């Protein structure tokens, strides 16, 4: 059984504990041209909808109220694809105690939904085992981040989206044996979903070194889930308090951006076209970069899945200032 997901606030351990295969939906870019959704909507969301219409090989779908576009995707799936089970996970924007309690309840509802669509009953020992395996993944990713550049990290992370947990951990072990950090000007790569993971390698090819990844498809992940606590509460706490994205409470996100900008020579921000959440955050990021004296390059992507000539030219021109 396979269940698709789109957001890193979905605790995959709840799915894996039942033997379900989580599959991150990163559909082919050309799919977005045939979607039922408005062309002024996020190209990634349009691609996901079209991919589902064409018959994606999944048995269910978990979405998050991460933005208005994702909420509209949930509505569209329910209306146009009524045979596909879909769950909307309500993630709070705050991270205090009450928010954790609320999110624990939301995860209980998610767990019951997985059972209803055929995932079987959730046993506590299975969930703790899934948490331990996921904690191993997180530890391996952090070790790889210390030894390799952002280009390798992005490639490995994208490969992992389509692998089982054990296979992904095996890949990480393999990559650790041959990891080598590139040398260059230290660059932060930030933004939303990155549909061109080759961007990290391009930066390093042109003389930069991606030392920090702050992306929905990067290292904006949980550090560790406490196995000694009640599993669902521990998952709720860990996922809510992981490095925040732009849809989370403002103060926490601003603090995160300030930490990311410190210690780098330049920052590259990748935002999908029509992504209101990250365009709204952009003035804050620009202000932080100006205050720290860090040059910022903003790239607006269209979910093409490839490095176009204009992206290569702009990245090359951005990095030439340090030559």
Give the integer mean of the pLDDT values.
94
Overall tally of structural domains:
2
Helix percentage? 40-55%
Tell me the distance between the termini: 52 Å
Shape: globular
Helix-strand makeup class? alpha/beta
Low-pLDDT residue intervals, each spanning 5 or more residues: none
Which fold name corresponds to the CATH topology of the largest domain? Answer: Rossmann fold
State the helix count: 12
CATH class of the largest domain: Alpha Beta
CATH second-level architecture of the largest domain: 3-Layer(aba) Sandwich
The number of E-state strands comes to 8
Oligomer: single chain
Proportion of residues in extended strands: 5-15%
Strand order of the largest sheet: 2-1-3-4
Please describe what this structure looks like:
- Helices cover 49% and strands 14% of the residues.
- By secondary structure, the chain is an alpha/beta fold.
- It has 2 domains: 2-119, Rossmann fold (3-Layer(aba) Sandwich), CATH 3.40.50.11890; 150-322, 3-Layer(aba) Sandwich (Rossmann fold), CATH 3.40.50.11900.
- Strands 2-1-3-4 form a 4-stranded parallel beta sheet, sandwiched between helices. Strands 6-5-7-8 form a 4-stranded parallel beta sheet, with helices on both faces.
- It is globular, with a radius of gyration of 19 Å.
- The model has no long low-confidence stretch (mean pLDDT 94).
């Amino acid at each position: 059984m396979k269940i698709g997901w789109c957001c890193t606030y979905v605790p995959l351990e709840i799915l894996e504990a039942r033997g379900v295969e989580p599959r991150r939906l990163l559909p082919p870019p050309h799919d977005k041209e045939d979607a039922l959704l408005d062309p002024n909507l996020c190209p990634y969301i349009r691609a996901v909808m079209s991919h589902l219409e064409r018959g994606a090989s999944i048995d269910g779908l978990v979405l998050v109220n991460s933005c208005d576009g994702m909420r509209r995707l949930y509505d569209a799936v329910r209306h146009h694809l009524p045979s596909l089970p879909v769950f909307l996970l309500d993630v709070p924007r705050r991270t205090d105690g009450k928010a954790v309690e609320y999110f624990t309840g939301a995860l209980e509802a998610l767990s019951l939904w997985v059972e209803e669509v055929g995932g079987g009953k959730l046993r506590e020992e299975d969930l703790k085992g899934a948490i331990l395996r996921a904690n191993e993944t997180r530890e391996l990713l952090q070790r790889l981040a210390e030894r390799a550049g952002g280009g390798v990290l992005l490639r490995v992370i994208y490969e992992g989206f389509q692998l089982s947990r054990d296979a992904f951990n095996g890949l990480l072990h393999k990559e650790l044996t041959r990891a080598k950090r590139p040398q260059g000007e230290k660059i932060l790569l930030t933004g939303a979903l990155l549909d061109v993971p080759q961007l990290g390698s391009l930066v390093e090819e042109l003389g930069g070194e991606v030392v920090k990844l702050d992306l929905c498809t990067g290292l904006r992940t949980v550090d560790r889930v406490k196995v000694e606590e009640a599993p669902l509460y521990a998952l709720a706490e860990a996922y809510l308090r992981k490095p925040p994205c732009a849809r989370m409470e403002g103060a926490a996100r601003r603090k995160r951006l300030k930490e990311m900008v410190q210690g780098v020579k330049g920052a590259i921000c990748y935002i999908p076209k029509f992504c209101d959440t990250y365009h709204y955050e952009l003035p804050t990021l620009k202000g932080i970069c100006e205050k720290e004296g860090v040059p910022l390059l903003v790239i607006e992507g269209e979910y093409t899945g490839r490095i176009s000539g204009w992206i290569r030219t702009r990245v090359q021109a951005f990095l030439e200032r340090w030559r």
